[in-house]
Amino acid sequence: MANKNWILMVTAQTPTNIAVIKYWGKRDETLILPINDSISVTLDPEHLCTTTTVAVSPSFESDKMWLNGKEISLAGGRYQSCLREIRSRANDVEDEEKGISIKKQDWDKLHVHIASFNNFPTAAGLASSAAGFACLVYSLAKLMNVKEEQGKLSAIARQGSGSACRSLFGGFVKWIMGNEANGSDSMAVQLASETHWDDLVIIIAVVSSRQKETSSTSGMRESVDTSPLLHYRSKEVVPKRILQMEEAIKTRDFPSFAKLTCTDSNQFHAVCLDTSPPIFYMNDTSHRIISYMEKWNRSQGTPQVAYTFDAGPNAVLIAPNRKVATLLLQRLLFYFPPSADTDLSSFVIGDKSLLKDAG
Ligand code: DP6
Q1: Measured from the CB, is residue 158 less than 6 Å from ligand 1?
Q2: Which NCBIfam families does the entry link to (predicted)?
């Protein structure tokens, strides 16, 4: 390590995920342990993803991070938890070509530089923290030759942002809430790979790319403290829904999948209204999209399209196949033309996909 003129880098790309059974509420704020299980679909990394490059060099004097080109502080507990957990599992790294040899015990003395880019609006309710922390943990683990399996890495990403644990896998993913007080069994598992139900098409109608007023973290804290509906939901509703959703995914039962997805999204936003003071993530355009989809589904006698909204006004619409997706896009453009009246500005089409390692 006498030679200070080297730098070792890893780049990785991680997609975001969209919950179809929502996570909302923690039982432990520091370890980020949820009050219920959740299920999500991981998107195609080409559309909504984070790309992160992590670098290590003896010439770096401190850990530093840049998000979308702007330096941000790593002082927060969440970044520190992820860095600490990965460093504690680091192993020897040898790069003969570059003449680099890092011993396990050296990692505590070396500093990292992290550069992360989102190819979509940050903090606008499009799960940017999910892709961001998943990518951070994944790329640091590669850099430091961490040998843990993906599930264990997901438990580390969870300590950055809860929903991030689900982005460590592609396809359909369940975050098991776990029972242990230290969070060791609160991690993500893959329910089905991205090829299992590859007819599904996901369309995101970007209603607004502005940053949300209430972050998910503070919103869910307020709900835990004040919403009776949230506690009823986590104990009485979600456990049954998780089983039904797992079955719908396994059997590719679109009507059940759509019904559960829409109902769960609506209950999550009902919890937000039940919070004191109430939290409004959706806007008028979001409500009009829901009314339109409900009318369409009812007119056909069976669900054609599923909708779900996270902590923001943007609609995530899921069609069973390309044919319905094309019809859906035509209808969206006709009923919600991009204009000054509706602030519906753009659409992103995404298929499900596996985590892609660009390193
Ligand atoms: C509505 O994972 O962003 O998207 O754990 O505090 O970082 P923290 O919250 P975050 O919350 C996501 C909430 C949600 C639902 C979901 O993704 O399950």
Answers
A1: no
A2: mevDPdecarb
Tell me the C-alpha distance between 20 and 307, whole Å: 9
- pTM, entire model: 0.93
ipTM: 0.99
Cβ neighbors of 166 (< 8 A, separation 6 or more) are 17, 19, 38, 40, 42, 130, 134, 154, 173, 174, 175, 188
CA atoms within a 13 Å half-sphere pointing along the CA-CB vector of 72: 12
Cis link prior to 277 (omega < 30° from 0)?
Answer: yes
Structure-block tokens of residue 147: 């040998």
The full 3-state SS of 92-105, as one line of letters, equals: CEEECCCCEEECHH
Give the distance from CA 101 to its chain's centroid. 35
Which atom of ligand 1 has the smallest separation from the CA of 310?
1
Provide the Cα torsion 63, 68, 71, 75; round to 10°: -60
Q: Is 267 in the pocket of ligand 1 (CB under 6 A)?
A: no
23 Cβ inside 6 Å of ligand 1? yes
Q: Is 155 in the pocket of ligand 1 (CB under 6 A)?
A: no
Question: How confident is the model over 5-35, as pLDDT tens digits?
Answer: 899 999 999 999 999 999 999 999 999 999 9
